[in-house]
Design goal:
Length: 206
């Protein structure tokens, strides 16, 4: 198995992100802020070389990839999509919490899928399947917040930690256009960077 350096990028912000709506597989474009974030990321990546550029096929991820790495060939892979939130697509957290299906989903979101959607374990499985297929030395992938953290929990056995007011039980957040970098050597995975958004901090909050 080829040694691998894998950079995972969360897409730039959309209008639904700004409004606190959970979009999942709803195919929203970048908002103005997301475009600015992606251009700042382009300046950070301009001297880096990647053997392979992959992206979720949802347009907010594709647009981020195109703005961050202009002129690069991009391979679209639906395994990199965000979690399907099912009946919770488009809702705010307040709207989710009064939905009849919310408590059952929250009882075990790793194994229990929202009606019409996916469990976190299903997201992790397709992300892991994609990652294990990689055979290039340096890969960058434009994907989504829950998808990134589900993969990392699966790779490293991180515990699920319920967060007050936040329906996905991950202790860490990854901001828009942030970079998380992992390496695979002789089949063993290590993490080197999580949610690095220095390109936004230096040039403004976006």
């Amino acid at each position: 198995m080829t040694d691998l350096q894998l950079t995972l990028v969360r897409h730039g912000a959309t209008e639904w992100n700004e409004g606190g709506r959970w979009q999942g597989v709803t195919d929203n474009p970048l908002g103005d802020r997301g475009e600015r974030q992606s251009r700042r990321l382009a300046r950070r990546l301009r001297n880096q070389v990647f053997d392979q550029v992959d992206s979720s096929d949802l347009q907010r991820a594709v647009q981020t990839a195109q703005l961050a790495l202009p002129g690069q060939g991009i391979t679209l892979d639906p395994r990199l999509r965000e979690i399907h939130f099912g009946v919770f697509e488009g809702l705010t957290v307040d709207e989710m919490t009064v939905h009849p299906a919310f408590q059952e989903w929250q009882s075990d979101p790793w194994r229990v899928a929202p009606p019409g959607g996916e469990s976190l374990a299903e997201v992790a499985a397709r992300m892991r399947d994609w990652a294990e297929d990689l055979d290039q030395a340096s890969v960058i992938a434009f994907t989504h917040s829950v998808a990134i953290r589900a993969l990392l929990c699966d790779l490293f056995g991180w515990p699920l930690l319920p967060q007050p007011g936040y329906p996905v039980p991950f202790a860490h957040r990854v901001g828009h256009t942030s970079l998380s970098m992992v390496r695979r050597h002789s089949g063993h995975w290590t993490i080197h960077t999580l949610g690095d958004g220095a390109h936004l901090e230096v040039q403004g909050s976006g």
